[in-house]
Amino acid sequence: MNAPVILDGRSILLVEDEYFIVDEMRRALEAMGATIIGPAPSVAQALDVVASAPRIDAAVLDVNLQGEMVYPVADALFQRGVPFIFATGYDDGVIDARFADITRCEKPVDPLKVARALFG
Amino acid sequence: MNETADSDRAEQRRLRDEIEQLRTSLESSIEENTRLTEDRDRLLRRVTALAREIQAMQPPAVDALLAEREDDRGHSGQTEEALRVAFEELQVMTEELEVANTSLHEQNLRLDERVRERTAEISIVNETLRKSEAALQIVTDLVPDLLWRADADGLVTWYSKRWYDYTGQSVEEALGTGWTGAVHPDDRGESRALWEIAVAQAIPYQREHRIRSHTGECRRFLVRAVPQIGKQGRVGQWFGAITDIDDLSQLRDRQQVLVAELQHRTRNLMAVVQAVTQRTLKGSVSLDDFKLRIDDRLGALSRAQSLLSRRTEGMKVRLVDLLAEELGAHMPTTPDGEAQIRMSGDEGVTLRSGTVQTFALAIHELATNAIKYGALSIPTGHLDVVWTVDRVDDRPRLRLEWRESGVPDMASKSATSRPSGYGRELIERALPYQLGCRTSFAFTEDGVLCMVDMPMGA
Known about the structure:
The complex is a heterodimer. Chain A is globular, with a radius of gyration of 13 Å. In chain A, a hairpin with a 2-residue loop joins strand 4 and strand 5. Chain A is of the alpha/beta class. The relative contact order of chain A is 0.20. The N and C termini of chain A lie close together (10 Å). Chain A is 35% helix and 23% strand. Chain A contains four helices and seven strands. By secondary structure, chain B is α+β, with helices and mostly antiparallel strands. Chain B contains twelve helices and twelve strands. In chain B, the strands form three sheets. A five-stranded antiparallel β-sheet of chain B has the order 2-1-5-4-3, with helices on both faces. Chain B has a five-stranded mixed β-sheet with strand order 7-9-10-12-11. A two-stranded antiparallel ribbon of chain B has the order 6-8. In chain B, a hairpin with a 4-residue loop joins strand 1 and strand 2. The two termini of chain B are 58 Å apart. Classes of the chains: A alpha/beta, B alpha+beta. The interface between A and B is medium-sized, with 23 and 22 residues.
């Protein structure tokens, strides 16, 4: 359970509008060996990254970006076949039903849990 | 109320039946009477004919008759006998007729009396019925619900006036299954299916659906109906009520959104607190140092939250209020009586709620730094906060300049008087990332100069 998670060489896209939250997550995942793509604070910027980044192994998506729902980014990732999880303050019922099977991590999010959810 | 009206109606029916029976018996009495009269008339004609026959015999003829008595005894005796019998029959018949007439007359009187009584009763029942229907009318018009009734097969037989007023349907359009035409097409199929199930199983019906008004507006209604079970355990009819719950359901939806939003904000705030705590912990040299810094930053966060929660509906936070919140308690004057802090800009400039928290934290770091090391740490220092809103490519941008002056030996102090790593990160990295700002932070000869250029999007 508590074995260190090694994310060597994994490219992880972070989508989150709060700078300090995403920066903490970035530092923690980098410490586990991951390469961070983004981070992107808005749907438009995240879509740009998803469209242009040569390699994305996984993504962590905040559900609400300054009042905008992240779903278009989730759809784009799904198209690319990239696994992703939601980091959210919302309860289950609020998330769109078509993403019912996507793993959700409640905020504040533990980076270790994120790593395990994506690659565990 | 309906039960009373129904029993009154039954009573009315009973009385009508009784009158019908009376009429039938009166008619048969009249027939009997006619028959007796005809019999009497026939007898009368016979007696008259016999009497004429007797009269036709002249007195001499009578004498002769008497003389020939012995001879003709047979003929004369026969005529007299027939006359006598006819007279007796006539008498009997007349008596019978008198009896029949009397009884007919009495029957007529009794019949009249009963008809009068029943008519009076009917008019009382009618009056009661009229009153109870009038009362029912008042009640159905008074309640805000749209009321209806349906027969055992689920076909609507009656609507209160409100249904017609709201939907604009005519009676012909509405009755039967016409209600489906007024239900929103997306709700129609399921509403009809559920109603058919309720009717088939005689179970209460409850359903929310949208009904289109005569103006085309669709409002949400709660429809309820219960079956009235008759004597044989079968459904007699259905009583239904349709309640407008549009405002309620909008409030309910809005409340759900607000609760979800509150949850999102709370968890997000917790995550921000956690991240700020991590940063502060890394930047602190001791636990005491950490305590001071974290108290300070949590205080700024909490002031930003209270600014946000103080907004009334649709109101935005004014920049000038946010500045006053961070500098307000600190309004010193220089030795020659001049205000140390000078703010200038349009007081009507407001901030989007999503930007308030981060912006307030940045202003807080600048203010804390000014008070500890900068222009507000000495009596002769000055702080000018100047802001303007310009349109660039037709999009409004807020330009804010934070200029400290009058701080001596700035060059030598700059090594120690800079904001903490956290403060600079907030201004130089968090503001650009989160709010799309362009920012700069620099030391001039006698103080700090910070510029923030922020898009003011909707």
